[in-house]
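Hi L.,

As promised, Dynein heavy chain coiled coil stalk domain-containing protein:
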Amino acid sequence: YITPTSYLELITTANAVLTKKKNEIIGLKNRYDGGLEMLDRTATQVGTMTKHLQELKPTLAQTAEDTEQLINKIEVQSLEAEKTRSMVAVEEASCNRKAASAKVIKDECEQQLQEVMP
């Protein structure tokens, strides 16, 4: 036997459960919709970035080519500088030997001059 009070409690409880489930489903739907919007925005951003990347590829290729040419030029200049540096080192050694020889002659001349001078 069901009393009117217990029947009203049953309806109230069922209504509360229904409201709770409805709110839960609405929350899940909102999360789902938010996720879809985020995926859509992300897809748009990826498309924009891909387009921008495609626009930058020729510039990147040109920059890479310019960099390669600059590296080759620097290598050639480095080799030339190394050759010049070695020639300067040889010349410096030769000049040092000549300077030492000239100093020896100068010292001998000064010594002979001291002997001659009273």
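The first helix runs from residue 4 to 116.

Thanks again for sending the construct details.

K.
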